[in-house]
Design goal:
The chain is built from 14 helices and 13 strands. With about 325 residues, it is α/β, with parallel strands linked by helices. The strands form 3 sheets. Strands 7, 8, 9, 10, 11, 12 and 13 form a 7-stranded mixed β-sheet that branches. The longest helix is centred in the middle third of the chain and has 22 residues. α6 packs antiparallel against α7. About 35% of the residues lie in helices and about 15% in strands. The chain has 2 domains: about 140 residues, Rossmann fold (3-Layer(aba) Sandwich), CATH 3.40.50.1980; about 140 residues, Rossmann fold (3-Layer(aba) Sandwich).
């Protein structure tokens, strides 16, 4: 749900979104033309990349999953921020609303980042902060933001549409055999997908293993993956697009016992675009049950998203 949402207003004139999910949501609510600035992660719709970047990470995000993990952990241990705000640019853009989040301190700029950097200047701007670790909470947050920006009716329409899409997938998978699924949200080290991930798998007609609904994704021993022995293994690293995720799949295949996994033996290991479809609490997340169903139930779902949102992965195919 949205925390400390600003009171409903007629409509903001100038918005800076420090959250990729928020940017996509604002565009879905018809407020894309009010956006004047974005975070470094905001990339959908594609045109928003032309907006000025107001934030940047304070660590190198170009390395491997292992290198990124080590850098993030080191900064968190030292109490150092993961993101930096360009105060001068923000002052020039002069937004009357900032959009951020409180769900995950690692994923995107939070109100705490604003306070940490510039408590006097940044925090007196109206801020709406999304927070939601389940599908229901995400939809509730959409409604809260819509109300905060004076688009309540548009918010209700959007939520009704998204709920109808979930119901349609749920109806199509009813009665189908439910494969046992492990979704990994990071590669080195492996993270079992939590938050809304297990719900998405269940909606798509699978049985989610390891991750817990509403709980943060967490480091998972490889032995736990081996013991779960899923029928389907889906790897969707947080913040990685499909091609970038594929580059590190050989690291999983080189782990002891990988070849003996039921998923590997059945050629049911998949890699997916985590950046857009799995890790963000955005309207695009509601494409994901159908994307998952294409992998889990190929006889019932045409592979409309294959090659763009997901691909089957075979050991030796990428290195």
């Amino acid at each position: 749900m949205a925390e400390k949402a600003v009171p409903a207003i007629d409509e903001p004139r100038r918005i800076v979104s420090l959250l990729a999910s928020g940017t996509e949501l604002l565009c879905a609510l018809g407020l894309g033309d009010k956006l004047v600035g974005r975070s470094h992660e905001c990339d959908y719709p594609a045109w928003v990349r032309n907006l000025p970047e107001v934030s940047r990470p304070t660590f190198d995000i170009s390395g491997s999953s292992r290198e990124i993990d080590e850098l993030v952990r080191a900064r968190l241990r030292a109490g150092e921020p993961l993101y930096q705000i360009d105060e001068a640019l923000l002052a020039t853009l002069a937004p009357d609303l900032l959009v951020t989040q409180t769900h995950c301190e690692v994923c995107a700029v939070s109100p705490a980042d604003l306070v940490h950097h510039h408590p006097a200047k940044l925090t007196r701007r109206p801020v709406v902060a999304l927070s939601g670790g389940t599908i229901a909470a995400i939809l509730e947050g959409f409604l809260a933001v819509a109300n905060a920006v004076g688009r309540s009716e548009a918010g209700v329409r959007l939520v009704n549409e998204l709920q109808a899409r979930l119901a349609a997938v749920r109806e199509r998978v009813a009665g189908l055999t439910r494969p046992r699924v492990v979704c990994l949200e990071w590669i080195e080290p492996p993270f079992a997908m939590g938050n809304w991930g297990p719900e998405l798998v269940e909606l798509a007609g699978g049985r989610s293993l390891l991750g817990a609904v509403g709980a943060h994704s967490t480091t998972t021993p490889w032995q736990a993956v081996l013991e779960a022995n899923p029928d389907v293994l889906i790897v969707t690293p947080c913040g990685f697009e499909l091609s970038r995720a594929e580059l590190e799949m050989h690291l999983l295949a080189s782990r002891p016992g990988y070849a003996e996994l039921a998923a590997a033996r059945a050629d049911r290991v998949f890699v997916a675009d985590g950046n857009r479809y799995f890790n963000r609490s955005s309207p695009s997340l509601f494409d994901t049950p159908e994307i998952l169903a294409e992998m889990l139930h190929p006889d019932a779902f045409e592979p409309r998203h294959e090659g763009t949102a997901w691909r089957r992965w075979r050991a030796g195919a990428c290195s």
